[in-house]
Queue: 2 jobs
Job 1
Amino acid sequence: MSRLDIKGDARRIFDVVKKGGIAIYPNTVGYGMWGATPEALQLCFTTKQRGGHKRHAMGCDAQLQREIHILEPRQQDMIECISQDYDLPIGVVAPYRQDHPLLQKVDPNLMKASTAKATLGLLLNAGPIHSEVGRLSREEGVPLFGSSANLTGTGTKFRAEDIQPEIRAIADLVIDYGLCRYHSYRRSATGIDFTTMQVIRIGSCYELISDILKRRFGVDLPVDPGRDALPSGHLDEFALKDDD
């Protein structure tokens, strides 16, 4: 029996991805997959059988999120209250700084596949591996993008062994930390557009996030209709379908 090697595993993931490979890794909100090149991300997209309305999310840590997103102080306070004060995962969608040095390194076609309506989505505070790889990405200047490690429409996978063979087959590295923390929600991360306060996806910790925003900032989010009524949590899954 041994302890987890967070920093060592994060370095292994980062080294594989920056060389053009694909890595499957554990988040608190389910297993995800990362790539850094258009070829790797296209392979992920094709294997997952994703529709054209889907977008890649960018890997980041808290500092990179602050650098990249264009937000008013109150909006940024909401994000940091959720992710730092209450230590919860959150998917953040917001306008971004197109001149940021890290984004200048992203292939234009990959950038188009990762943005919509002048916004960029980032998953924040999704566990120690996610944050550490995000730090490496920022410090070493290698932008990473990814999504959940599953076939589209089959739900987030909270154990590595539940990831479909087709998905595992394209990965150069799989880091298995067992059952993910927020498995009981059976959904991925809650995602919010913090410029409009539109909920993109009702996901893990949604009732906690709703309570924080109501109590601390006077913001009311929609009521979760429940997983039976809305399994994916997406309130408008095809909102980006016709985006250029």
Job 2
Amino acid sequence: MTQIRILVVDDHQIVRQGIRSLLSNYPDFDIVGEAADGAAALGQVQQLAPDVTLLDIRMPGESGLEVLRQIRQVQPEAKVLMLTSFDDEEYVLEALRAGAQGFVLKNVSDEMLVRAIHAVCRGEHAFSPQITEQVVRWVTAAPAPPVPPPKNPAFDPDEQQILHLLVEGASNTAIAGQLYLSQTTLKRKLRKIFAKMEVDSRAQAAAEAVRRGLV
């Protein structure tokens, strides 16, 4: 069985020891390195190329977020799981923007941490339940992107004049007389206008012309 090679980055030695002790109970994990600060973490990532890096956020010197950005620069395919005690909204959002595959709080169960490591190693995202709820709230609360207005088709001078007259409520007979068109020619031009505006009637064409600001 191929083991998942893990790098543990946390400034507290007792935390690193605890994680190592926990994960050593699982034969599919291999703790290949530890780091207590950003510089050491970056060096370990470059030297060891772990499958998953467990990264704390608050550390002396460079924060975990800064380290994450640097890791993504030197190892774009690196898989990073944030493992921290802090669930501040800004931390979570910045970690996701910076490329973290997961965000797990240190109070999760052993089984959840193990599942999260496996998920991140597979290229999936993993979150603590509290973080998942936050992410869902943020996504559902985000305003929907504006719908761009439809692109207006090009009309020749006769078609533009016909649209103006349609909006004014002129009949086909009045339009044909004013533009010196035969009824056959007018009907052909109306069909072209309807097709360009994707409508089926004079009334719809007039309404669309007003809505799109064509008249």
